[in-house]
């Protein structure tokens, strides 16, 4: 087991890892790098071809003047910032990019990226809207079409043995990350929200075997570590989509709370389920990626919200913060249902709108701080209640937009 000083040193080295050095090393060896723009694209399919998957993010710079020439101001900010990153050259190291028909907005992004011809490969993958057996079969066929395209692009055959090996490697990454998440159930979590999100992001940008080995060696140290937090209470769950700006987590925890669980595609939804290694690979991948904790565009709203409620219980969460990107229509449509179900369960919850990079900081900080203060008061005084008044209306700090 690593000693405390050595453990902290190794943890810091991993969290501060320069992932762009990986890009330079891979490009130097002639390895093609394929950008993934959607959590429904299996990394296994790219790894099996000998290429390297890279989960893309949008630029954190403002304004997005270049992307605004191609996109309306009233559509998804995350996709607009991704297009700006492409136009700024921040993703020029990519040889190709894979998008999906997850929603109309991403389809329109595909149209622009394809027309610009910035990459040697621009591909859109079909994702069904449900997880019935017929949808699993259709998604398996969609994955086969993707792999055929990747085979042509990589000039390499992706056989079932290669695919099975990459499935096992990716499952190991998920298993190790879930062990980290299990440790967050403790009274004092070993990692704060920012550190956990960094780990998940690293697993999307590092060679899997390297990441797996480093994280596994750190787990004994994490068993005894206490996260650098102002307070271990209240315990929060953060829910959002395409939330990859770590400043949001830093801001929330600076108000005296601990993020112990998340409902994020760059977090729990990336790692929560394994691919069955004993099943035919295409069908196994299709099942896993259609039954993972879902994005709001899927037709499984009831199951999605039940999963959040179960996480609240398992991780002893005191309150839920939903950060709504206002132009993300699937989540905007589902948001009232999520709020209704949480209220019915007596779970304190608030919804705040957000920008893509952290913006309107002081307004958002004030609202988060008020919610944290209410939860703290509630834990010390049962008469305060669960965040709702006697008529069932949300307290004022939870009503408006930030």
Indicate the mean pLDDT. 91
Topology order in helix (H) and strand (E) letters: HHEHEHEHEHHHHEHEHHHEHEH
The second-level CATH architecture of the largest domain is: 3-Layer(aba) Sandwich
- The percentage helix is 40-55%
Number of helices: 15
CATH classification, class level of the largest domain: Alpha Beta
Structural class: alpha/beta
**Radius of gyration from CA coordinates:** 21 Å
The strand count comes to 8
Largest sheet entry: 4 strands, parallel
User: What is the CATH topology of the largest domain?
Assistant: Rossmann fold
Assembly status:
single chain
Describe the 3D structure.
The chain is of the alpha/beta class and 402 residues long. The protein has 2 domains: 18-156, 3-Layer(aba) Sandwich (Rossmann fold); 231-398, 3-Layer(aba) Sandwich (Rossmann fold). Helices cover 50% and strands 10% of the residues. It is built from 15 helices and 8 strands. Helix 1 (4-15) packs across helix 9, helix 6 crosses helix 12 and helix 7 (160-183) runs parallel beside helix 9. The protein is globular and about 65 Å long. Residues 382-402 have low confidence and may be disordered.
Summarize the structure.
The chain is α/β, with parallel strands linked by helices and 402 residues long. The protein has 15 helices and eight strands. The strands form two sheets. A four-stranded parallel beta sheet has the order 2-1-3-4, with helices on both faces. Strands 6-5-7-8 form a four-stranded parallel beta sheet, with helices on both faces.
